[in-house]
């Protein structure tokens, strides 16, 4: 189901109502129904939420990520507007997964993503469980020529290459994509040795996944990432917040005691989102119901804004 975002989710501090250099995001964000979006040189990006954790539940995780899209908007609201006065970022609303109909919701999310990309604007997707990524991918694929290559960059502690024979979940998306789309390829950074079975490492090798363990994110790894991106027509960036050390991100379904620090994640986001072939970003697995003092939500909002700034300033 598609719904518009309520105004209450874009409220915050006001320093000035007349001086644009003092404006904050909630003063500049415009809510626009997806069917009313018009291409414009001043339109920088569209934000869409995916209110869903059906995939997490199917994957036997801790639910609550469905609360993240609106919580992230509220955390974004008071951040300072970093763009020109005449430029615009829009919020096109939310896709809501109802009655456990994950596949239908993913398809609907894909349609919104396709619409934004074909309007020549960047796209920011607020998940939701990491099943959000599959809807994001469907939208990117539909917006591109059939033989265009997609380089999927995932910042994640887990491969998400489980079997989907019984049903898709938040642990199956990349296997679904790689087995169905010969023009899609997968690079993941932050993999945890203790967060993935030996079978999943073997499946990653079988599907020719390029991966970097959390303890091996070096300059050489970042060079390999750059080479991967340069080889593709389109770069899709997805962040699963369970990649972060649990001390920084307690509000996720599956915490990572040996996870990455926020500075490392920020560095990866900057490198990927600033690539000229990167046009969309999603953030997943923020779980406000499990958070402590809103710190994971706030960190997620900062990552979103970092990605947005890099995507549009190219």
UniProtKB/TrEMBL annotation:
Keywords from the UniProt entry: Histidine metabolism, Hydrolase, Manganese, Metal-binding
Which free-text remark accompanies the cofactor? Binds 2 manganese ions per subunit.
Q: Which residues cross the membrane?
A: none
Q: Could you tell me the superkingdom of the organism this chain comes from? A: Bacteria
HAMAP family noted in UniProt = Formimidoylglutam
Q: Please state which protein family the record places this protein in.
A: Belongs to the arginase family.
The name on file for this protein is: Formimidoylglutamase
Provenance organism: Lysinibacillus piscis
């Amino acid at each position: 189901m598609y719904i518009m975002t309520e105004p209450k989710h874009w409220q915050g501090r006001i320093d000035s109502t007349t001086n644009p250099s003092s404006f904050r995001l909630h003063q500049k964000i415009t809510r626009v129904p997806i069917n009313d979006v018009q291409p414009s040189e001043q339109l920088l990006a569209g934000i869409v939420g995916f209110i869903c954790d059906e995939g997490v539940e199917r994957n036997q995780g801790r639910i609550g990520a469905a609360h993240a899209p609106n919580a992230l908007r509220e955390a974004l609201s008071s951040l300072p507007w970093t763009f020109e006065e005449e430029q615009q970022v829009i919020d096109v609303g939310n896709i809501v997964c109802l009655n456990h109909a994950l596949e239908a919701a993913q398809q609907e999310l894909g349609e919104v993503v396709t619409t934004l990309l074909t309007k020549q604007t960047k796209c920011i997707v607020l998940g939701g469980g990491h099943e959000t990524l599959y809807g994001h991918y469907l939208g990117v694929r539909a917006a591109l020529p059939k033989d265009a290559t997609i380089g999927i960059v995932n910042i994640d502690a887990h491969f998400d290459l489980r079997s989907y024979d019984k049903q898709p979940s938040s642990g199956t998306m990349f296997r679904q994509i790689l087995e169905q789309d010969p023009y899609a390829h997968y690079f993941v950074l932050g993999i945890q040795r203790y967060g993935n079975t030996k079978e999943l490492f073997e499946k990653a090798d079988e599907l020719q996944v390029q991966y970097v363990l959390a303890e091996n994110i070096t300059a050489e790894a970042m060079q390999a990432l750059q080479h991967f991106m340069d080889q593709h027509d389109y770069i899709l960036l997805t962040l699963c917040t369970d990649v972060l050390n649990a001390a920084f991100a307690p509000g996720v379904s599956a915490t990572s005691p040996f996870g990455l620090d926020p500075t490392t994640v920020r560095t990866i986001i900057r490198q990927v989102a600033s690539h000229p072939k990167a046009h969309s970003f999603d953030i997943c697995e923020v779980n406000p119901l499990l958070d402590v003092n809103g710190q994971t939500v706030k960190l997620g909002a900062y990552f979103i804004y970092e990605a947005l700034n890099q995507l549009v300033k190219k």
